[in-house]
Amino acid sequence: MERKIILSADSTCDLGDMLKEKYKVNYYPYHIILGEQQYTDGVDITPEDLYAAYRQKKILPKTAAIGVGEYLAYFKKWVEQGYDVIHLNLGSALSAAYQNCCIAAKELGHVYPIDSSNLSTGTGLLVMEAGERISQGMSAQQIQEEVTQLVPYSHASFILDTLEFMHAGGRCSMVTALGANLLHLKPCIEVDNQRNGSMGVGKKYRGPLDKVLVQYTKDKLKNTPALKKNHIFITHSGISQERIDLVKKTIQEISDFENIYVTRASCTISCHCGPNTLGVLFMTE
């Protein structure tokens, strides 16, 4: 008899409340460190709190990965109740959480970690794939194998309005940030889903953000073959509804996706990219 399955993910998958409920996803939150205080992502701190602390006090938020002991305690209750657990992690190139999760899984048994090699709803899309397979009655091991094979087909990228937060977090140099600001450049940050999920800079756009968001959306959807049309995400770190609607309208003009979801990025994602960041995230066949 197959064991029942619990679906779980790091809080960085950014699915939002509706999809979290639909797929019965359990989240384990990352740690957010702000000054001398430690917070729990999405529980007792918001992205607006991070931005306010940086703007007003120049306090840079930091993040901390989920530890082995935390994963052990988190999974143990389900394993002891006779469940298998599928857990999707933030990409291993971006965090130690996947390695820590694997250590806990090996000790407990019946836990099946998946390295999403991705972030935000790039991971979330894979969580949904796992949820659909659970509903079909697949075993945990088969789900782990099949979803792992889908990792290269989940595409994540974002347009940054400013490099200030990337620079503050040590992810780009002052020269790069200053040059981009002087030239009014807005870089596209892309996740390398063909390798290990590391981030790199793609096309650099110039001009006002509204114009850039439209062109970026067109570039991503028109230049990517074999789009999977069931789901696409607009995920942002805090941006106006008008800009969200503009991107949504652009998506609808290009392709007929069954579902266009809008979700807000977690504190863990937001503290590295700053406000007015937006991405379109989707899968290919």
Which strands sit side by side, in order, in the main sheet? Answer: 2-1-6-7
Instruction: Quote the distance from N terminus to C terminus.
Output: 32 Å
Mean pLDDT over the full residue set: 90
Share of β-strand residues: 25-35%
Number of DSSP strand runs? 14
Question: Could you describe the largest sheet, including whether it forms a barrel?
Answer: 4 strands, parallel
Number of helices: 11
Radius of gyration: 19 Å
Helical content stands at: 40-55%
Along the chain, the helix and strand elements come as EHEEEHEHEHEHHEEHHEEHEHEHE
Can you give a write-up of this model?
By secondary structure, the chain is of the alpha/beta class. 42% of the residues lie in helices and 26% in strands. The protein has helices at residues 16-22, 47-57, 68-80, 97-108, 120-135, 140-150, 164-168, 174-182, 209-222, 241-254, 267-273; strands spanning 5-10, 25-28, 31-34, 37-40, 62-64, 84-89, 111-115, 154-155, 157-159, 185-191, 199-206, 227-236, 259-264, 278-284. The protein has a four-stranded parallel β-sheet with strand order 2-1-6-7, sandwiched between helices. A four-stranded mixed β-sheet has the order 8-14-12-13, sandwiched between helices. A three-stranded antiparallel β-sheet has the order 4-3-5, with helices on one face. α4 links the parallel β6 and β7. The longest helix is centred in the middle third of the chain and has 16 residues, at 120-135. It is globular, with a radius of gyration of 19 Å. The two termini are 32 Å apart. The relative contact order is 0.16. Mean pLDDT is 90; it is low at 171-183.
